[in-house]
Amino acid sequence: MDRLNARLAADVQARARLALEIARAKAAHGLAAADPKREQAMLRRVLDEAPAGFERCDLARIFKTIFVASRALVVASAEPAQRPSGACRPSRARSKAKRARR
Fold first, then answer.
1. What is the pLDDT of residue 33?
2. Rounded Cα distance, 65 and 93, in Å
3. Is 59 exposed, middle or buried, given 0-12, 13-18 or 19+ CB atoms closer than 10 A?
4. Domains of the chain
5. Distance between CA 90 and CA 57 in Å, rounded?
6. Has residue 79 got a pLDDT over 90?
7. Contact at 8 Å (CB) between 74 and 19?
8. How many CA atoms lie within 13 A of 28 on its CB side?
9. For FRET with 21, which of 3, 39, 69, 97 sits at 20 to 30 Å CA-CA?
10. Are 65 and 11 in contact (CB under 8 A)?
11. Alpha-carbon torsion 18, 23, 28, 34, what sign?
12. What is the full DSSP assignment across 61-84?
């Protein structure tokens, strides 16, 4: 399990680096960084080709989260640094849970 987790982390980080490269290329050509139609197509393909394991809705949620984080990374890379390196925003789920406890 540890090796698989390490491989997943490496693959997600590789995806982040690629998203930044793509964003730079799009910016150089005057294209929008976000492409919702492309994200939907990628999600459909992942779900259509995924082997058994997670339920389809859970796998979709995982990939949507990766897409949101990738977009945030691209946006943050285009803006001046506003938070210290390594600082994370609270997840929406944690934020909702925190509000519910109040």
1. 84
2. 11
3. middle
4. 2-81 (1.20.59.10)
5. 23
6. no
7. yes
8. 6
9. 3
10. no
11. positive
12. HHHHHHHHHHHHHHHHHHS---S-
Residue type (1 letter), 14: A
Quote the crossing angle between the two packed helices 2-28 and 56-78, to the nearest 10°.
50
Q: What is the mean pLDDT of the chain?
A: 85
Phi, psi for 31 (deg, rounded to 5): -95, 155
Q: Among the listed ranges 15-24, 42-51, 93-102, which one has the minimum average pLDDT value?
A: 93-102
**pLDDT more than 70, % of the chain:** 77
In angstroms, the CA 20 to CA 93 distance is 26
Letter for the amino acid at 57? C
